[in-house]
Amino acid sequence: MTQPHQPIGIFDSGVGGLTVYQELKKQMPHEHFVYFGDTARVPYGTKSHDIVLRYALQNSLFLMDHNVKLIVVACNTASAVALDYLQQRLKTPVVGVIESGAAAALAVTKNKRVGVIGTEGTIKSGVYEKALKTLNPTLTCFSQATGLFVPVIEEGIFGESILQPLFTHYLANFLHKDIDTLILGCTHYPILKKQLGQFLGSGITLVDSAQTTARQVWELLNKNNLLNTQSQSTPDEIFFSDAPERVQNIARKILNNQGLVIKQGGIN
Amino acid sequence: MTQPHQPIGIFDSGVGGLTVYQELKKQMPHEHFVYFGDTARVPYGTKSHDIVLRYALQNSLFLMDHNVKLIVVACNTASAVALDYLQQRLKTPVVGVIESGAAAALAVTKNKRVGVIGTEGTIKSGVYEKALKTLNPTLTCFSQATGLFVPVIEEGIFGESILQPLFTHYLANFLHKDIDTLILGCTHYPILKKQLGQFLGSGITLVDSAQTTARQVWELLNKNNLLNTQSQSTPDEIFFSDAPERVQNIARKILNNQGLVIKQGGIN
Questions:
Q1: Which residues of B touch A54 (CB under 8 A)?
Q2: Tell me, what's the pLDDT at A231?
Q3: Residue B268: pLDDT band by 50, 70, 90 thresholds?
Q4: Could you give all domains of chain A from N- to C-terminal order, each with its CATH number?
Q5: Half-sphere exposure of residue B117, counting CA atoms within 13 Å on the CB side?
């Protein structure tokens, strides 16, 4: 039987999902977490439906080998493509980030015109539009795949001379759509929040799914009496399928050098 | 015993290696080829040494399951990192693209000042510099990782507004180095040849390794009496570990719609 002391599992295609881990940890400091980033096969956003299903299942089974009580799919592409597939197959409850992102946008938008940016896989799936319409059928949704944002972030390029033309290329249309809210539909994107905000101006609020996902996880655990109320002494475990120096550096930057132990594991 | 009728195997991290396949086919039209592009795990250029070794070995064994008489590592990153590793382990001869690229540059340079661009993995390995120095110790070599070129090409972005600042970001230094030759140290890069040429000007000759690699393969087969002199009736086989529409479209574009059958295979 599942017990409160078991860890919460999180997986992502790479390091971006650590932004979700951070928020979960903040809201549930007593919980023990096992994070898996599939850096050996990143990115997922340009890969096919079937490949993302296969990777998502492998990652979930890796987390289940670590005895997790719940799995958070922190990757938007994997959430978009594989959430139902995982929920239909796995005994452990699985939570994605799409509905949470949509709920976050709904709480913010005043004019009911919402934009979404994400990887090719996420945008093609149409899941954000579907989730928004389910929450409120009167919403109008505009979506745009922004394929180069992940490589630009992973390359560590934040200079205006590169970002400005990229933003124009992908986002200029949004400036004419009268949206007041933009969902950052990829766990990497909060890292560009400042630059995106400057480009889009103060009339558009940027939302991501980290906070609402953490809230959803709390509610699910609470409902099933699975919240860990004891202070946790075991340190969290951060696994990457490939952990070169560059990955470790980005991870430590996102986690503010919390001194976590980063391990290699979970690759076939 | 190895026979002339057996196919030549080629692998790459994705679709870029098809530029090498094309040149091999052109120089050896009687040969039968099996190509494998690891699109399910692309890119290799940002991944660690150990992961590239593992993938290169898996890809080579996939080709050996197809009874190849020789393996061409069309991927510069895998050639840079894994060529010795493969040659030490596999009975089938393995040919990389680094020495060929260096030889091509040596044949062109007049002032003996050569630039190299490639992925982070290729440039970090320092193999081009080593290969150039081995060929001619008086050469001076300047290298630069150009991490975003592969994603930009795969995203299909060829507009000046994006490429110009990227070229400036990565290549402006080369314009002050007085190089007269630039090695395109990644099989994707020939796709940007025109735009790179315009940026760098006519004083710098761009070379890639496709032609010299094909020549090296011909010589190796000829020396061992393994050239196929019979006209080949079996169609070549093109495998991708992930073959979504986008991959098929880029592949057909590179191969000028030769109507080849593209198959999915070789992924664990």
A1: 267
A2: 77
A3: low
A4: 8-96+211-264 (3.40.50.1860), 98-208 (3.40.50.1860)
A5: 27
